[in-house]
Amino acid sequence: MKLVATGKVRESYEDPSDPTRLILVASDRISAFDHVFTQGVPGKGRLLTAISAVVFQHLEGTFPTHFIGLASGGRPEFAGRGLLVKRADMIPVECVVRGYLVGSAWDAYQKHGTVHGVRVPDGLGFGAKLPQPIFTPTTKAHVGHDLPLDDGGLASLVGGGLASKLRARSIEIFEELSSWYSAKGLTIVDTKFEFGIVGGQLTLADEVGTPDSSRIVAGSAAAPDAWLDKQILRDWLVERGYRGDGPAPDLEVAILERLRTAYVEIYQALSGAPFSAWPGSDELYLGKDDDAL
């Protein structure tokens, strides 16, 4: 298969039978603070693919997405790791939506009483739900840090009309996912979406609703010990003095297993099915990727 692009976690291949479609293959790699670690989380690629597939299926018929289905055929080690998608002209923006006061939203609120320039009521604590979801887009940097975009910066980058559509669509999808996740016993705290243009239509692309692209908790966002996403790794690294500067610590087996367990919990909550029934085999993938255990 023709390799089209390589990212921190995924490789994109052209569908041999149709160049208007891609196969997105998720690896076991994991990154934090813009560093890709040499140790991978066993089965993470299959988990990301499984979660994205379930979420895309939930959104089907409500919002245009690039999702077609699971990729079949190809290399056996890619089974359960590949999404078959429509090829999109990607928009170079990370469309972040925040629903709760955590992370940089909490930091900004403590300093200024605002989130991305939006005034937020006084007296809220960590993990409090925002009165309305707040759209906080960033650039999509291939190297280094993504940079925040204000309304003017986003409009300058993509045009005023498209900027308005990105804001509205991102908040609509976030609200839909918030309601659905809540019904499954989960809280989607914040997330990022990526969009492209397919056939002239704004289309949700990349991954969606995964613990790599979202903060997700079981229950309340004010209970940080309930994280089920990559925040587990960020907190573990900060406890060891690493925030992206200097040499990164090796990831211990215990933290990799904790991440895998959290990702499995999300998939099983959303799908209502055991992850053991998901196609593919981690054993086939071992040795195919230097980052896999």
Q: Would you identify the CATH architecture of the largest domain?
A: 2-Layer Sandwich
Percent of sequence in beta strands: 25-35%
Calculate the terminal CA-CA distance, rounded to whole Å: 25 Å
Name of the CATH class of the largest domain: Alpha Beta
In total, how many domains does the architecture comprise?
2
What spatial form do the alpha-carbon principal axes imply? globular
Kindly identify the CATH topology of the largest domain.
D-amino Acid Aminotransferase, Chain A, domain 1
Low-confidence stretches: 289-293
H/E element sequence: EEEEEHEEEEHEEEEHHEEEHHH
What is the CA-atom radius of gyration, in angstroms? 19 Å
The average pLDDT score comes to 93
* CATH homologous superfamily classification of the largest domain: ATP-grasp fold, B domain
Give the % helix: 25-40%
Q: What structural category arises from helix and sheet content?
A: alpha+beta
Number of strands: 16
Number of helical runs?
7
Largest sheet report: 7 strands, antiparallel
Describe it for me?
By secondary structure, the protein is α+β, with helices and mostly antiparallel strands. The chain has two domains: 3-88 and 251-285, 2-Layer Sandwich (Phosphorylase Kinase, domain 1); 89-237, 2-Layer Sandwich (D-amino Acid Aminotransferase, Chain A, domain 1). It is built from seven helices and 16 strands. The protein has helices at 44-59, 103-112, 151-158, 160-183, 231-239, 253-271, 282-285; strands spanning 3-6, 10-14, 21-26, 31-32, 35-36, 67-70, 82-86, 89-90, 93-100, 114-115, 118-119, 129-135, 138-139, 186-198, 201-205, 214-218. Strand 1 and strand 2 form a beta hairpin. The chain is globular, with a radius of gyration of 19 Å. Mean pLDDT is 93; it is low at 289-293.
